[in-house]
Structure formats: structure tokens, C-alpha cells
Amino acid sequence: MLVAISISPAGGPGDNETGGVSASVAEAVRVIRASGLSNETTSMFTTIEGEWDEVMAVVKQAVFAVAETAPRVGLVLKADLRAGHDTGQLRAKVERVEQRLADGQ
User: Fold this and answer.
1) How far apart are CA 21 and CA 13, in angstroms?
2) 3-state secondary structure of 1
3) Rounded to two decimals, what is the model's pTM?
4) H or E segment at 21?
5) Which residue range forms the structural domain that includes residue 69?
6) At what angle do helices 52-67 and 22-34 cross, to 10 degrees?
7) 30 vs 3, 80, 98, 104, CA distance in Å?
8) Residue 101 to residue 78: CA distance in whole angstroms
């Protein structure tokens, strides 16, 4: 499965006059990267690839890491479960779209 998550702290020391939350988000990404699961971080989401139980355990750990810095945490989660496509989809989905673009489709 692929899971795209966005974790946002609220009401804690991560909040500042600019609204920046990068320190708290970095803690979540650190947990995800330490998990050993395939992952990719973009400006809005971090996508994680793996089996249901292992991915959800990492999501929980990442949320709790942010909760240590803020009294309130928001989580946005989007999942893609596709039978027969167990691994490699983190990159393969993008490659299929890029191939269509290159082919003019």
C-alpha cells in the first residue's frame, strides 16, 4: 500500500509569527525515514510504501513524535491499496504518468 500523510502541529512551540512548523514536521519525517520503509517527502505530503500494519505503525509513531512538541496534532491521510502491486509503486505510478506524457497520450 501507499499512504500519503501530512502531520501538522497546532498550539505548541512550533508555532511562530510565520506559521512555520518545519521543526515538528522534521521530527515526523525522521521517524518515517528511520522505519526503513520506502518513502518520499514533498512540500505537502510524505508518502510511505509497505504493508498495512507496518505503515500504520509508522504513521502512529510519527504522529506521536509531533505530539511531543504540540498539544494538538492534525493528520491528513490518503491511502492507495492495489492488489497485485505490493512494492515499487512509489516510483512506478509516477513513471507510468511520465511515460504517457512522453508518448503524447
Assistant:
1) 9
2) coil
3) 0.83
4) none
5) 2-102
6) 150
7) 16, 23, 29, 39
8) 25
Cell of residue 52, nine digits: 498495512
pLDDT in tens, 13-70: 555 566 678 889 999 999 999 999 999 999 999 999 999 999 999 999 999 999 998 8
Q: What is the CATH number of the domain that holds 57?
A: 3.30.70.930
The total number of structural domains in the chain stands at 1
Q: How confident is the model at residue 95 (pLDDT cuts 50, 70, 90)?
A: confident
- What amino acid is encoded at 79 in this protein? A
Cβ neighbours of residue 8 under 8 Å, at least 6 residues apart?
21, 24, 25, 66, 73, 74, 75, 76
